[in-house]
Structures are given as structure tokens and as C-alpha cells.
Amino acid sequence: MKILMDKVSINRSLARITHEILEKNKGTNNLVLIGIKTRGEYLASRIQKNIEKFEGVTVPCYAFNINYWRDDIDVTLKSFPKEEYDFHNKIVVIIDDVLFRGRTVRAAMDGIIHHGRPKEIQLGVLVDRGHRELPIRADYVGKNIPTSINETVKVRIEEIDEEENVVILEEKNDV
User: Fold this and answer.
1) How many CB atoms lie within 10 A of CB 74?
2) Domains assigned to the chain
3) Is the entire prediction scored with pTM above 0.90?
4) Is the dihedral of CA 126, 130, 136, 140 positive or negative?
5) What is the mean pLDDT of residues 123-139?
6) Which residue, among 74, 82, 72, has the nearest Cα to 106 in the 3D structure?
7) Residues 71 and 96: beta-carbon distance below 8 Å
């Protein structure tokens, strides 16, 4: 196991991502943050608090469960989400912990579009580890971490894990 980011570098990255979001969108008008459950929702909440601190404005921030729109879960096991959101004509910024193959983000976009046609969808991630299977890229990245396909990147946050860091777990060799 190798620690790639500690609590200080995570917070620094989230502050930078917040400033980049504000700069690209020229403020907070029509801005909505969507945190992909589970760790993405906490990272989005931290970005929301940063926006409050930097701009004095509270933007809407939602935890978004994308399971219904995933293509790797049998549809018979899914229940349609009951939450109602209004994303029509909004600038929606999806926040997640790790961008890997791109399938989670695709599912999130499907779910967002189901709830209204946004003006724009943007993506912010704490870690981009590569290995995309879909043509998806992040607009805001805390850290690019080149990895082997067999390595695992784990984001740990205090709200869930009672510690805060980003680690890369060694490849598992078949015995």
C-alpha cells in the first residue's frame, strides 16, 4: 500500500477544484452540485462549503444514487429512484472520488438527463486513474494517478472511514 494523498493534499485539491468550477462558470448562477453516492456526495458537500466560504452563496448539492442507470446491474434487481430533482437548464457538476472506466459517470449522466435537460454537465473528480472504456474525461481533477489495470485506488474520507487519504493497493498476483 502506498499513500498518494493525505488529508492536507485532499483539502488543497478540493479548494483548487472549487476555484476552477467558479472560474469556468463565472460564479454560481444556475450551478448545481451532484455527489455520486457514496464518497462523491461527501466531496460535493465539501465543495459546496468551499463555495459558501469563497462566494457567500449556497448552491444546491444533492447526493445521487446512480444504481438504477448502471449497465452492469440486472434491471430486475433495480428499483426506480423516488427522488425528484429539477436539472432543467442548470449547470450540473458531477462530483466523484475516482474516475476509472467511465461507466459510473455515464450512469450519472443518464440519471441527470432523466430529471430534466441541463444546460451543461461537467465532471469533477478527486482522482483520475485512467483506463477509460467510454469517451469521458473530467473537467476538474484533483490528481492524475497513472495505474496498472490490476491496481486499486482507494479514497478514504473521515465521514465514512474515520481516516483521510488516497492509497494505491498493490497488484494481486495469482498464486
Assistant:
1) 7
2) 2-169 (3.40.50.2020)
3) yes
4) positive
5) 97
6) 72
7) no
The closest alpha carbon to 105, from 34, 15, 31, belongs to 34
* 91/120 Cα distance (integer angstroms): 5
Count Cβ atoms below 10 Å from residue 127 Cβ, excluding itself: 25
Give Cβ neighbours of residue 23 (< 8 Å, ≥ 6 apart). Answer: none
Mean pLDDT of the chain: 92
Distance CA 72, CA 69 (A): 9
Report CA-CA distances (Å) from 121 to 33, 53, 58, 116, 148.
10, 24, 19, 12, 29
φ and ψ at residue 51, rounded to 5 degrees: -60, -45
Distance between CA atoms of residues 140 and 138, nearest Å: 5
